[in-house]
């Protein structure tokens, strides 16, 4: 619970507690605080148990820590039943970007790969687009690209 408190901070808290409550009242204050913390924990555990009983047997392995979004997502990503690892490993972002760039420029993926491999002036090499190069501006005699979706 208090993993980030160092020894110097603990000593400071003890000295402060002795100064505020005094050495004669400090043991009673510590007992009262520990009793209050124990009652809060018992209340919390009984509330969790009541919720589990009300949810029924299908939620017997329900953990309240799963309500934290980070924990829930981490648990679901580690779950092998969903097949997310296969999807993540089967997705090649560079290939997808190259396909999109080829579609935008009106080239087939195979012709772009062959022009790049033959040393042509295409901006792709073996089916990949070099995203660091600036696109070539069309000359005065080149017509603007036709976009069928825009018309």
Automatic annotation (TrEMBL):
Superkingdom of this protein's organism: Bacteria
Any one Gene Ontology cellular component term annotated for this protein: TAT protein transport complex
Record key words, sorted: Cell membrane, Membrane, Protein transport, Translocation, Transmembrane, Transmembrane helix, Transport
Sections of the chain in a coiled coil: none
Family matches, as Pfam families: TatA_B_E (PF02416)
Phylogenetic classification of the source organism: Bacteria, Bacillati, Actinomycetota, Actinomycetes, Kitasatosporales
Gene designation: tatB
InterPro entries in alphabetical order: TatA/B/E, TatB
Name of protein: Sec-independent protein translocase protein TatB
Annotated membrane topology: Single-pass membrane protein
Basic and acidic residues: compositionally biased ranges: 130-139
Subunit structure: The Tat system comprises two distinct complexes: a TatABC complex, containing multiple copies of TatA, TatB and TatC subunits, and a separate TatA complex, containing only TatA subunits. Substrates initially bind to the TatABC complex, which probably triggers association of the separate TatA complex to form the active translocon.
Keyword Aminoacyl-tRNA synthetase assigned: no
Renumbered residue ranges of the record's region Disordered: 102-151
Biased composition annotated in UniProt, kind: Pro residues: 140-151
A GO BP annotation: protein transport by the Tat complex
KW Cell membrane (keyword) present: yes
HAMAP family with a match to the protein in the record: TatB
Location relative to the cell: Cell membrane; Membrane
Functional summary from the UniProt entry: Part of the twin-arginine translocation (Tat) system that transports large folded proteins containing a characteristic twin-arginine motif in their signal peptide across membranes. Together with TatC, TatB is part of a receptor directly interacting with Tat signal peptides. TatB may form an oligomeric binding site that transiently accommodates folded Tat precursor proteins before their translocation.
GO MF, one annotated term: protein transmembrane transporter activity
